[in-house]
Task: structure prediction
Amino acid sequence: MKHFFKGVLSLSIIPLVMIGCSSSPYKSGQGTPHGKRIFIPQERVIIERPIPPKIIPYTYNSWVAASDNLRRVREYEVFLEKNNVGNIIPTFELLRTARDWQKCGRSQYMIPTRELWANQVPTLKVFKYLVASKVLTDFEVTSVYRDLTLNQCAGGASSSRHLFNSAIDFRIGPEYPQPEDYAFIENTKFKLCQFWEQYGQSLNMGLGLYASGQIHIDTQGYRTWGPDLSRSSSMCNY
Result:
């Protein structure tokens, strides 16, 4: 994580703001400078919880040791570091393909083709702000780049941003949430929506929620959707 905060303050995309905090300049029910009505409670319980350590799976260690994967992974890592978006997401998560990889007979991990590397930089910059401002704390990335064969098998859209290495899917909290996890999960969704409402248009940011509970972020269009893939079911409709 030694490069994590490097360049955070120098990024010129947006000011770093603690979303949903009482220091926000917008009061409950007031609009944004663009006239969009948002809701920010005057007082909101801050849910603190320990962040579990990231443990590299043995499946990743086996995969990276095969063929020339280690060399190719390192080249990709160097590229991201040079663009100030390295070490934001652990590499073993950043290279995950799709949750249905095994059913589809494909690899759990893939390195995008070199011509697609730059596509992930804007989305990782958004992720960098979300993590640095503690909008996202306890999360796990589950799907990033997929090739065409895997995307079709996994039921991805024909124009899926995952095909172009410009999207990130993740979940909040543990894979199998317990009752005590739900308040944290909902609070994180609320903060994500606040971020999207305030900065999404300038970042060309898409924010989606799937029926599985996975959340999708990309920088390929300002939009939001929910389990039925429409705006009406978005988690940001509060």
In short: Strands lie at 139-143, 167-172, 206-209, 215-218, 223-225. The chain has six helices and five strands. The radius of gyration is 18 Å.
